[in-house]
Design brief:
Blueprint (H helix, E strand, L loop, with lengths): L1 H44 L4 H14 L2 H10 L4 H16 L1 H6 L1 H13 L7 H20 L4 H11 L5 H14 L16 H38 L2 H21 L1 H12 L3 H16 L4 H14 L2 H16 L5 H38 L5 H19 L4 H8 L8 H31 L2 H20 L10 H29 L8 H17 L10 H19 L2 H7 L7 H18 L7 H27 L5 H28 L7 H8 L29 H19 L2 H15 L6 H4 L4 H17 L4 H15 L11 H19 L4 H16 L5 H22 L8 H11 L5 H8 L4 H10 L7 H27 L7 H15 L30 H15 L6 H11 L5 H18 L7 H11 L5 H18 L4 H5 L4
């Protein structure tokens, strides 16, 4: 009880003592306030007497004991006594500023102690007293000559020890105290000079905070390590790892609050004040290169990219306009003034960022400087520029970047060039996006929106409220002004970019030149129709005006592009960039480029030819298994050049197609280059086959170039009249087929190029009406292509020959589909005469007839009944081709100087040895011709209407076709020599689609089904049945396939022929060949199903 009473007495004594201290200090505060007022009045009266003023100051200085008051602030207990002491200190700062200044260190220590006292940190009265004292002391320090920087440092020094939630309020109190302070550069601007000082001081303290945290963590680590060393083993290793993690975490956490505090201080300011502070602190940082530069750049980039800043800028503009509710023009000018001030601030920040980048680049090359820190500073400058990209108007941004283009360091120039190109492309994309947004709004929706805005505006005007934005007109006006500034900036940049593109000397690096050309390309795209929208008509008109204004400057840069396209240019990247830039210029300017075409187009095609030839060489190296890293790099770079050149050609064709005719030969030489047609060289296909890069995920540059060329080959015939295109196209096709023997033309030999030329010719005549003269030229071109099997380069294999022949066949059908019957009949007659022209040459006759039958089959499939009445000559030639008297092997031996007798003797002696190559080719060609003749005959007969196939014709054809059922394929042919389109030579392959056996079985069935009289069925059917007794199992299988096909076509009508067939089928049930027996049983099952009777008993009795 005695102890409790003692505690109560002590508490009462402390409370009474604290109350007495507070009362005393409050009395002194009142005296200090009165003294401050008296001193101010005395100074006002004695302004003219310096002596009196000095004497008065001396009296004032000697009246107050500032150190005693500071001691009271430091020693007073938390509560009313300390609050009263802080209030007294605030009053003394006004009454005796020089005394407070002389005791600046003691005052600073006392304030720091009060700020860090956790017992009073949650007391609102204590916080208010501390902030009041700080607000009074800081002006006294500054007025006394301490300076704003030193005063700010004293406040910032107290922040690490202060609670986290008190730090922002202390900084705000300092900023309030500096609002009335006038410094150089801030007078009359309304800006707080303390904000940039606080920001710089906070960021400067990060290093000391990190060092202090590192030192503290080192001390703790030393103690932990000692304890772990005693334990040793695994505990020591784990402790060391934990120490390092704790050390890193402590260093990182020591400065996190600084960044948060800086962001908070910037967020509470208006947008213009924040930008002004960032400009000032960035200028201050550029004079102290190093860590502060990097931190300032990161802070600026983060703040400018935040949504809070964008919202603050919008609020400030709205508030400025709302300050003039009665004057709409004044409100608009006020909002524009805010925007102009922000733009100036952005430009200043961009300039400071460029200075940072320059300095960082220089420091990176200096071995005595910290390269890592220089890299951080450069990265920070780039981040600021990136943040300003979306804020700064395009013209101002380009003007801010322009000085960097003249920097001595090529890396800085390249970075600036990329920034210029990026900004121009972003502006173009923004214009397109704006048009797309306008297009997405329906007309009714826009009308409703405008009506609603007008109603709201009328109500607000009636209520004398702030004017409201009525629509998009104001935005359009701003965009028009920005577009004018952008054109002016781009006009000034154009000659600089052109000079960088053609720079020579040691400083002229290829990457820099390519970047300059890329910037020119971006400028051409920006001021072109690609940046406009047909929906946003107003902005489209403005962009076209800008295009006209920029056109002269852009046109003057074309010689620089042409120079970069010259054959003396070694860098492929520069050539590709120049071609891309030229394509963009042609797209942008269109016919205005005509004056430069005589110089630009030849250079363009020269560069493309060089790249195409290089690509062919690369393909040869790859095909010879000599692929290296250099080869792959050459292919990639050359493919990029070709893609760029093809884009330029496409732009030339799209915008100035009428000026392309003098250069059609060059265009076709490029588009039909083997490297761009899927053929890597003579006769083969190599380059186009690689469709992916090394990882298999992306297409190679070569494949991309080939795709561009294919698109151009499709578009060129539609844009160029046949009278201009067919002649050079025929010349190009003949070069691809090796008709020219010169060494230069030998590199142009390629079956893919010939096939592509044929496709282009077909498209050309199918989309427009072609005069007879030009149609004849086309037919001559097709006949030459169809003659490729007889006359082709030795490098062409069977695949190449078949590809050219197929494309010629398709082209012929496409052309025939566009002709009238009166025009088609002479064409077909010319074709048949061409096929018969070399009847005395067996090899030529076989090749041409084979091509004729292939075309006839395609025509029959495409034209059907229209073609059949005109096909009488085709039937005659098919009958001749199926005649057994046609002996290509004998003809080939005569052609080789060997008599028929000698050939017969060789055939007898030849068992396993391979045949002569000429004989093999002749036999295979004859076999192919026979199959195609049967196919053409079957298709024609299937579509005839009864006028073509009369009794005489039927009796002429069916013996020839039934004889083909038992035809034997060429023997003794090695697998390597069998063409891919002949796949029925092997045993059991006789019914492969397209082969002689398959076509013969189909053809005889079609003949029987199309016979003009069913009395003609029996002789044809009899011929098929006799073929089932052929000694060769192959022939029996083909004959059974013919019977099955006949049954399928005639259905129940075949039953009249069934009695004759039963004896033959009964024999086949016991055939030694299992496949023959199986086919016979299948046919019998089909017949039984048709007849509805069990045919087994008849089969057992041999049909009796």
């Amino acid at each position: 009880d005695a102890n409790a009473d003692a505690d109560v007495v002590a508490a009462r004594a402390a409370a009474s003592g604290g109350y007495a201290q507070a009362l005393l200090l409050s009395t002194l505060e009142a005296l200090a306030v009165r003294s401050a007022c008296t001193t101010a009045a005395t100074k006002e009266k004695s302004k003219k007497s310096k002596k009196a003023d000095t004497a008065d100051d001396d009296v004032t200085d000697s009246f107050w004991d500032v150190p005693l008051v500071v001691r009271a602030v430091r020693d007073a207990e938390a509560g009313p006594a300390r609050d009263a002491s802080l209030s007294l200190l605030a009053a003394l700062a006004k009454a005796d500023p020089k005394g407070v200044m002389r005791a600046a260190l003691e005052v600073s220590a006392a304030l720091t102690h009060s700020a860090s006292d956790l017992s009073s940190s949650e007391d609102a009265s204590s916080r208010r007293a501390l902030e009041q004292a700080l607000g009074a002391v800081v002006p006294a320090w500054i007025a006394g000559g301490l300076g704003m920087d030193a005063a700010c440092d004293r406040v910032i020094d107290a922040l690490p020890d202060a609670p986290q939630h008190r730090r922002a309020s202390l900084c705000v109190a300092f900023l309030r105290a500096t609002e009335t302070v006038s410094t150089e550069g801030s007078a009359g601007t309304g800006k707080n000079p303390g904000l940039p000082v606080v920001l710089a001081s906070l960021l400067s303290h990060t290093k000391s905070l990190e060092l202090a945290a590192e030192l503290a963590s080192a001390k703790l680590a030393a103690k932990s390590k000692k304890r772990a060393q005693k334990a040793g083993g695994a505990l020591l290793a784990a402790t060391n790892e934990q120490i390092e993690m704790e050390k890193q975490r402590a260093v990182e956490g020591a400065t996190v609050w600084v960044g948060d505090l800086v962001a908070t201080l910037l967020a509470r300011e208006a947008a213009t004040n924040a930008v002004d502070a960032l400009v000032r602190v960035s200028k201050l940082a550029t004079t102290e290169t190093g860590r502060l530069e990097w931190l300032v750049a990161e802070t600026a980039a983060k703040h400018l990219s935040s949504r809070a800043f964008v919202a603050a800028a919008r609020r400030e503009a709205v508030a400025a306009a709302a300050a003039h509710p009665e004057d709409e023009q004044a409100a608009e000018e006020a909002a524009d003034l805010i925007a102009l001030e922000l733009q100036r601030g952005y430009a200043a920040l961009a300039e400071n960022a460029l200075v940072m980048i320059r300095a960082a680049t220089a420091d990176a090359e200096d071995s005595s400087k910290d390269a890592k820190l220089a890299s951080r500073v450069e990265r920070g400058g780039r981040r600021v520029l990136g943040a300003l990209d979306g804020l700064l108007a395009p013209g101002a941004y380009l003007n801010a970047i322009a000085p960097l283009l003249e920097h001595t360091d090529p890396r800085v120039r390249r970075k600036a060039l990329r920034l210029v190109a990026h900004r121009l492309r972003a502006a173009a994309a923004a214009s397109v996006a704006r048009g797309a947004a306008a297009k997405s709004k329906s007309r009714k929706a826009r009308s409703r929106a405008r009506a609603m805005k007008h109603r709201q505006a009328s109500r607000q005007k009636g209520a004398n409220s702030a004017p409201m934005d009525l629509g998009e007109d104001d935005d359009d006006d701003v965009l028009e002004e920005e577009l004018v500034d952008e054109v002016e900036a781009a006009t000034r940049l154009a000659p600089v970019l052109a000079s960088l593109a053609v720079a020579i000397g040691a400083s002229a690096q290829s990457a820099t030149r390519a970047a300059a050309l890329g910037a020119l390309e971006a400028a051409a795209v920006r001021f072109s129709d690609a940046s406009s929208s047909s929906v946003d008509t107003r902005m489209t008109q403005e962009i076209r005006k800008a295009q006209l204004a920029f056109a002269p400057s852009l046109l003057k840069t074309v010689p620089a592009m042409v120079r970069c396209l010259s054959e003396h240019e070694k860098s492929r990247a520069v050539v590709a960039a120049a071609a891309n830039a030229l394509a963009a210029v042609m797209t942008s300017l269109g016919p205005r480029c005509v004056p430069v075409l005589p110089e630009a187009v030849p250079a363009l095609f020269a560069a493309s030819r060089k790249a195409a030839n290089t690509l062919v060489s690369v393909a040869h190296e790859k095909s010879s298994d000599e692929t290296t890293v250099a080869t792959t790099r050459d292919e990639t770079e050359t493919g990029a050049v070709l893609v760029a050149c093809l884009r330029a050609v496409n732009a030339l064709m799209a915008k100035m197609g009428g000026f392309l005719s003098p250069h059609l030969a060059d265009v076709l030489a490029l588009l039909l280059s083997p490297s761009l047609c899927g053929g890597g060289g003579v006769g083969g296909g190599g380059v186009g086959g690689d469709t992916t890069t090394g990882d298999g995920a992306m297409k190679s540059a070569t494949t991309t170039a080939a795709e561009h060329a294919a698109a151009l080959r499709e578009a060129l015939p539609r844009a160029t009249p046949p009278r201009l295109l067919l002649a050079p196209l025929g010349d190009a096709m003949r070069l691809a087929l090796g008709d020219e023997a010169s060494g230069e033309s030998q590199s142009r030999v390629s079956f893919t190029a010939a096939a592509a030329a044929l496709r282009m010719a077909a498209v050309s005549v199918s989309v427009t009406d072609t005069p007879v003269a030009h149609r004849d030229a086309l037919i001559a071109m097709l006949l030459r292509a169809l003659d490729v099997r007889r006359d082709h380069p030795r490098e062409f294999d069977a695949t190449a020959i078949d590809a050219v022949e197929k494309e010629a066949c398709d082209a012929f059908v496409r052309v025939a589909s566009t002709l009238t019957e009166s025009a088609f009949a002479p064409t077909l007659q010319r074709f048949t005469e061409w096929a018969k022209a070399r009847a005395d040459d067996p090899h030529a006759s076989t090749a041409r007839l084979s091509a004729l039958f292939r075309v006839a089959s395609a025509l029959a499939d495409a034209l059907r009944g229209v073609f059949a009445p005109l096909a009488t000559p085709i039937l005659d030639l098919a009958a001749s081709a199926l005649d057994p008297a046609f002996d290509p092997a004998s003809a080939a031996s005569l052609e080789n100087g060997t008599s028929a007798k000698k050939r017969k003797k060789e055939k007898k002696q030849e068992t396993v040895s391979a045949k002569d190559d000429a004989v093999v080719v002749a036999e295979l060609d004859a076999w192919r011709m026979k199959a195609r003749a049967l196919g053409a005959l079957r298709r024609i007969v299937s579509h005839e209407n009864g006028d073509l196939l009369d009794t005489a014709r039927f009796n002429q054809l069916h013996p020839l076709v039934t004889r083909c059922l038992t035809a034997e394929p060429p023997k003794g042919v090695s697998l390597q020599k069998i063409p891919f389109d002949i796949s029925d030579l092997a045993e059991n392959d006789e019914l492969v689609p397209g082969g002689v056996g398959h076509e013969a079985s189909q053809c005889i069935a079609q003949l029987i089904a199309s016979a003009p009289d069913d009395t003609l069925w029996k002789p044809a059917h009899r011929g098929v049945l006799l073929a089932t007794r052929d000694p060769a199992p192959r022939a029996r299988r083909v004959a059974l396939a013919a019977l099955l096909e006949t049954t399928n076509k005639l259905q129940e009508e075949y039953l009249v022929l069934l009695p004759e067939a039963i004896p033959f089928l009964s024999e086949l049930f016991e055939d030694p060949d299992e496949n023959v027996e199986a086919a016979a049983r299948t046919l019998t099952a089909t017949l039984a199903e048709l007849s509805g009777e069990d045919l087994k008993s008849l089969m057992a009795g041999g049909g009796e």
